[in-house]
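quick one before i forget lol
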Amino acid sequence: MFVSVLLPFVDRGSGPLFHWVMLAQMARFEVEDVAFIGDSAYFDESSIPFGDWLKLGGLRFQCPDQRKFRAFHKIELAPELFADMAVRIGGGHLDLFRHLLTEPDPAFAACLEQHLRELAQHNDIEALLSWCNLPALSRAAAQMGGVPVIHNELGPLRSPLYRDTIYFDFHGVNGCTSPPTWSQDWVRQQLEGSDLLEPARLRGLLVADSARVQALERTPPVFRAGVALQVEDDSNVVAYASGWTPLQLLYDAIGRFGADQVSVRGHPGAHFVYRGGLGQADASTDSLAFLASVEELVSVNSSLLAEAALWGRRFDAKGDTPMRFLAQALATREPEWAKVALNAFFLAYLVPADLLFDPAYYRWRLTMPTLARCHERHMAALHLRSGTAIEELPGGSDGLRASGGLVRVPALWTGTLSLERQLEQIRVQLDQSRQQAALREAELLGELAGERERANRWEAEAKQNWRDKEALGARLTEAEAREAQARARRDTELERALERERLSLQELAQARAELDSAEAERLQLHESYVALSQAVEALAEWSRRVPHRLGDEAVVSDEPPVPAAAAATEAGLEARPAAGQADVEAVLLAQIDRLSRRLVAAEGEDALPSGEQAPVGAEPLAQVQWLQAQLQALQADLSNQRWQNFCVRQAHAALQADIAEGGGALVQALRGEGMDPGWNFPDRIGGLAAAVAAHMAALRSRLEATRRRPLTVLERITGRPMDREAK
C-alpha cells in the first residue's frame, strides 16, 4: 500500500495546505491502497464537501462520500509535537513552514518512523507520497530501509493554454529536484532509441488551445526583459529562492535593462498587487502574450521559466528549480542537444495530469523505468497528434543579454517638486479630464438612447410573444382535443377490427374443421373404388359360372377380365389426383361394358330404355345396360371441369364415400344371393337395379350439396359474393 504524508500544522490563511490533495488521493485510490498521516484539521469532517465535484486548475475529481472517507486508514499526529517545535523555532506559520521544508527535524522524523513501522507490521508499504519536500520524512524512509518517497506537485504547464502536467520526482519537488543533477551523457543514454520530437512538434503536442496561439500577433518584443513574480508565501519563495526576494529581483532587472525596458507580471494568486515604479506593470491577457512582449524572462523559480524554454525565449532562473537543467542545456546553443533536453524535460520528466494518483502508473514508476520508456508512455497518454507543429516566438533585435554596469536613470524626480510644473500638470490633467468627461457623457447619452430603443423593441417583442403564446396555447388545446377524438376513433376502429378478426378466426377454424372432415372423406375414396371393383368382378364371375342362363357361350369373349380391383387398389394407395381417379373409373366402366356385351350376346337384345327411373320388369340385359348408363352419367359429373377446378377433392371424397357404401352393399348382396343354389339372376337383377336407381338419386343430391358447400364457406371468409360458374 501507499502512505500519504500530509504537511501538518502549517496554515497560510486557508486551513491545512494540502487538504485537496488528500481528497484527490481518496478519489483515485481504493481504500486498501493508501493510508494517511496528518494533523486533526485534515480529518475534520465538518469542512469536507462529500460527493461534490472539485476542480483545481485542470484537475477535476469527485470528493468521496462520507462512508468512503471514514473507511480510509488515517493516523492523526499528536498536536504536542508541533507545539514544542513552534516554541523551539519561534516565529509564525512561515517560519514553521520553512523549517519543515528544509530541516530534518529529529522529533518529527522519529514520530513518522514510529507510525510507519506500526503500519508495516500489517501492510507492505510500497512508497510514501508527499506534495512537498519533507526532510524528516526522507530520514524516516531511510531508517525504514530506503522506502521510496514520491514527490508530486502541479506542473509548470497548465490549462487552458497547455495540456495539464504534474511533477513526479523521487528526490524532491520545487527545490532539491533531480533534473539539475542530470549530465548530458546520462540523458542521451537514457533516451537512446526514443522517437524524439522537434521543438515545433513538441509545442504542437503540449499546447491545448491552438486557436489562442494562432490569434497571437507575432510581432517583435517591445521590452528587453520581463520579470515574473510569484506567490509570496509559496514554497518556491519561502524555501528555494536561494536568497532572492521579489524586491531584489526587480532591482536586478531594472539595473541591467532600465525601468522603461522591464515589464513586470504579478502572479494571479499573489497577496500583493504590483502597482509599478520598478518597471512597467504588465497588462497582457495571459502568459503567452507576456512572453511574446519580452526578449528575456527573469524569475526566481516561476513556472513561466518552463514556458519560456518551450517557446524559445531566453530566461534567467535565480532560485533552486528543475528549470536549471534546461537553462544549462539551452545555453550551449547546440540544436541537437537542445532537442534532446526539451524531450527529456517536457515528455520524460513532466507527467500528464491524467496519470496523477493512478495506482497502476505509480507502481510502474517504482520499477524505475528509463527516460525513454517514460517518454513513450507519456506520449501515448497525451495522444500524439501527428503533423502538428507550432513555431517559437519571434526574438528581439540583437538577441544578446544585458551586460556591463548598472543602468543609471536621469534626475527626473526633483523636477516634480516645482509648484509651477505641478500646477501646469494639474491644469493639463483637468482639461484632459473635462474632455474625457464630455466624451464619456456623449457616449453615455448615446448608449442611453440605444438602451431605450432596445427596451421599447423588447417590450413590443414581449407583448407579441405573449399574444403568440396565448394563440399557441389555444391551438395546442384544440390539437389535444382533436388528438383525443382521433385516438378514441382509432380505439373504436381497432376494437371493431379485432372483433372482425376474431370472427374470421372462428370461421377459419370452422373451415379447417370442414377441411379435416373432407380429408377423412378422402380416405374413404380408396375404399369406394375397391368396393365397386369387387362388385363388378362378382358380376363377371357370376356370368362365367352360369353362361347357360345367358344364351350361346360361343359369342361370349374369352378375354380375361381386367384386374379392376387391383388397379383400383393401386390407384387409391398412390393417392392419385382427379385425373388418376378418372382412370380408375374408366377401368370400372370397361368391366361393366364388357359384362353388358356378354349379356347382349346372350339375349340378342340391344334396346335400352330411356329415363332416369330403373327399368323395373325389363330384361336383365336392359337393366344392366341402364346401370351402365347411370354409372357413365356419374362419370360425366365427376369429370366436369368447373367442378374439378374448385372442389375436386371434397366432391370426389363425398361422392366416392356414397359409392363405396352402395357398392359394398351390392357386393354383399351378390355374394349372399350367389350362395343360394336357387338364385336366378333375371329374377333378382330387377330388385338390384331399383336399389341402384334410388342410390343414384341420393348421390346426385349429395353431389349438388357438395358443389355449393365450399363456396359458401369462402363467401363467409371473404365477406363478398362470388360467381360459382366462373370460379
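fyi The CA atoms of residues 190 and 370 lie 6 Å apart.
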